[in-house]
């Protein structure tokens, strides 16, 4: 489906925990067409200083509604907190190439850092095979949606850097510990989070000969492929690569195609 420009309406807006907020938009033009891993570009109302829209992964869709999880981390998202029921919000979407369906016969493994799990929920819901999900964050307040994934039939393992929930350490530490126990079958990874985590998941998968689908974390300007601010080096052959737009050709790339810089963003 081609992207659409739509005036959506706020159906629900509330804080869920630790400063994380749920924004539910009535979006009859865009919501029914969103695929797992795609995103929308939202214009912050009444913020004249903000020329650029903000990209948000779509957490859930239900009929004519779509949900976004976010945390106020700057001026734009602070303004978003002011949205109330029935406010109008300008959306462009659905945007980007999302996650493919898990390969039949492989064990799907979801890996999320911070609220990266929001980009993985639709994949978890639509996947016929239920696997294991690893969620990581700095503290317990950063771990969201546990019950929602478990209700879908997924095993959820948690790691926090301060040890306030689950195992103490990085989410990749929990994943590594699980792999050392021995895996029945061939895993296939689907990851969303900071680039350091994505690189670690991708490197592990490539070392073992497994597939890993990574939702790349890049700052976006236009969100529709015109401004070229979110480009990523992607392999096109054994010794060749080209710049691809995370907002257009991505955000999801298979790990073997990604060319990492020496010091990836975290």
Low-confidence stretches: none
What's the overall average pLDDT, rounded?
91
Along the chain, the helix and strand elements come as EEEEEEHEEHEHEEHEHEEEE
Shape: globular
**Helix count, per DSSP?**
5
Strand content: 25-35%
CATH class of the largest domain: Alpha Beta
Question: What is this structure, in a nutshell?
Answer:
With 266 residues, the chain is of the alpha/beta class. Helices cover 16% and strands 35% of the residues. It folds into 2 domains: 4-95, Beta Barrel (Elongation Factor Tu (Ef-tu), domain 3), CATH 2.40.30; 107-257, Nucleotide-binding domain of ferredoxin-NADP reductase (FNR) module (Rossmann fold, 3-Layer(aba) Sandwich), CATH 3.40.50.
Describe the overall structure.
The mean pLDDT is 91. The chain contains 5 helices and 16 strands. The protein has a 7-stranded antiparallel sheet with strand order 4-3-7-1-2-6-5. The protein has a 7-stranded mixed sheet with strand order 11-10-9-8-12-13-16. A two-stranded antiparallel ribbon has the order 14-15. It folds into 2 domains: 4-95, Elongation Factor Tu (Ef-tu), domain 3 (Beta Barrel); 107-257, Nucleotide-binding domain of ferredoxin-NADP reductase (FNR) module (Rossmann fold, 3-Layer(aba) Sandwich). With 266 residues, the protein is of the alpha/beta class. The chain is globular, with a radius of gyration of 18 Å.
């Amino acid at each position: 489906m081609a992207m659409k420009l739509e005036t959506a309406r706020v159906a629900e807006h509330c804080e869920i925990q630790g400063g994380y907020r749920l924004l539910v938009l009535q979006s009859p033009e865009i919501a029914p067409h969103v695929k797992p891993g795609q995103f929308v570009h939202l214009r912050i109302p009444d913020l004249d200083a903000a020329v650029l829209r903000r990209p948000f992964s779509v957490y859930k869709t239900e009929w004519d509604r779509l949900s976004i999880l976010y945390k106020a981390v700057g001026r734009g998202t602070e303004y978003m907190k002011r949205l109330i029921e029935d406010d109008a919000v300008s959306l462009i979407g659905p945007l980007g190439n999302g996650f493919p369906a898990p390969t039949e016969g492989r064990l799907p493994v979801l890996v999320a850092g911070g609220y990266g799990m929001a980009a993985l929920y639709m994949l978890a819901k639509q996947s016929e095979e239920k696997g294991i999900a690893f969620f990581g964050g700095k503290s317990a307040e950063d771990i969201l949606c546990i019950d929602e994934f478990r209700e879908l039939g997924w095993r959820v393992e948690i790691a926090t850097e301060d040890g306030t929930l689950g195992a103490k350490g990085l989410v990749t530490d929990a994943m590594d510990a699980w792999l050392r126990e021995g895996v029945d079958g061939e895993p296939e990874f689907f990851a969303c989070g900071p680039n350091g985590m994505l690189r670690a998941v991708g490197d592990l998968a490539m070392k073992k000969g497994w597939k890993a689908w990574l939702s790349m974390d890049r700052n976006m300007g236009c969100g529709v492929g015109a401004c070229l601010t979110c480009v990523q080096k992607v392999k096109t052959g054994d010794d060749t690569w080209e710049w691809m737009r995370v907002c257009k050709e991505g955000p999801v790339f298979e790990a073997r195609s990604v060319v990492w810089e020496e010091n990836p963003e975290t």
